[in-house]
Write a structure and sequence with these properties.
Elements (H helix, E strand, L loop, with lengths): L1 H6 L2 H28 L3 E2 L2 E2 L3 E4 L2 E4 L4 H8 L1 H34 L5 H9 L6 H12 L4 H9 L1 H7 L13 H25 L4 H8 L4 H12 L1 H16 L3 H6 L7 H11 L3 H33 L1
Antiparallel strand pairs: 1-2, 3-4
Helix pairs in contact: 2-15, 4-9, 4-12, 9-12, 10-11, 12-15, 14-15
């Protein structure tokens, strides 16, 4: 009775709301997708996995799609490419976003709202329009493409294997990673800023008094204390990048096939929903691993703080 009563208290309701939300809008739909992935499709109808006939309860699970994923090199290379491009985007966002967040956190308090607004300004424009804008900038004749070709940067990108032909920037790994980095950069900056803005600056003063150079203090104090922000920003960038569909479709090409495109083809071109659901389940499992690492790190950080 006491346990039931505690659920309806203010604290119990506050804790229950997000759990109910996750149950209804994440876990339950995921179970539906998982059920479809082990079901057999008869034209446009899914056969029941649990049937009761003549007093016999039968559970029929079809794991052939998962076996096919492990045997077909296309799926393995697509998953690997998705993880590779997502990791490259995350690293670039960190390298670009950390200085931005550091500058914002050290700026005058009166200037910080303006800087935050500038970071969030791209969200005021449609995501699709911003991606289409990069198509115009990187296509032959676009001013970004012309500037890069004029500076000879296309030759450097070609030597690095990021473009297939000098002068051709669109539908390449370069255009794909550039588009994702531009799109998801704010998701890296905002958690880093929130973390760096709360840092106790007296620690840097103490390090300076003990003879540490600014660079040493940065690596020994600032970076370790901002580790939670780095991990949070990396997860916010990496996870959506793995399943990204729009940017690879508009800016990428045949050589930048990612799992989002494979899901689209299985669902709408092949009309093979069980296969598409299997691909989606494996993708979710791949994403859960970094989430579990992040949760473990957060729990350890909270234990150390106590």
């Amino acid at each position: 009775m006491k346990a039931l009563k505690s659920i309806f208290t203010g604290r119990g309701l506050v804790i229950a709301v997000p759990f109910v939300f996750l149950l209804v809008f994440f876990l339950f739909p995921f179970f539906i997708v998982g059920k479809i992935s082990v079901s057999e499709m008869d034209n446009v109808v899914f056969k029941d996995v649990l049937t009761f006939t003549d007093g016999v309860l039968t559970l029929a699970l079809r794991f052939g799609n998962y076996v096919f994923i492990t045997e077909d090199a296309l799926y393995f290379s697509t998953y690997l490419a998705s993880l590779k491009y997502a990791a490259a985007t995350t690293v670039l966002c960190l390298l670009i976003g950390y200085p931005f967040a550091y500058f914002m956190a050290r700026a005058k308090p009166t200037h910080q709202p303006v800087l935050l607004m500038l970071v969030m300004l791209p969200f005021w424009t449609s995501f699709l329009l911003r991606v289409y804008a990069w198509r115009g900038l990187l296509t032959e004749g676009g001013w970004v493409a012309d500037a890069m070709v004029g500076l000879g940067l296309d030759q450097l990108l070609y030597a690095m294997g990021l473009i297939t032909t000098p002068g051709k920037l669109m539908h390449t790994p370069f255009s794909l990673v550039l588009g994702m980095t531009y799109t998801y950069l704010p998701f890296m900056i905002l958690p880093l800023f929130g973390n760096l803005a709360k840092m106790d600056l007296r620690l840097l003063e103490a390090a300076a008094d003990l003879g540490a150079t600014p660079w040493t203090a940065f690596w020994k104090i600032t970076v370790p204390l901002s580790k939670a922000g780095i991990i949070a920003g990396s997860m916010l960038v990496f996870i959506p990048c793995v399943g990204e569909f729009v940017i690879p479709e508009l800016l990428g090409g045949p050589e930048t096939l990612m799992i989002g495109r494979v899901l689209w083809d299985e669902f709408f071109s092949n009309n093979d929903w069980p296969m598409a659901s299997s691909v989606a389940v494996v993708m979710v499992l791949l994403i859960i691993v970094p989430l579990a690492i992040f949760s473990k790190y957060q729990a350890e950080s909270q234990e150390r703080a106590k």
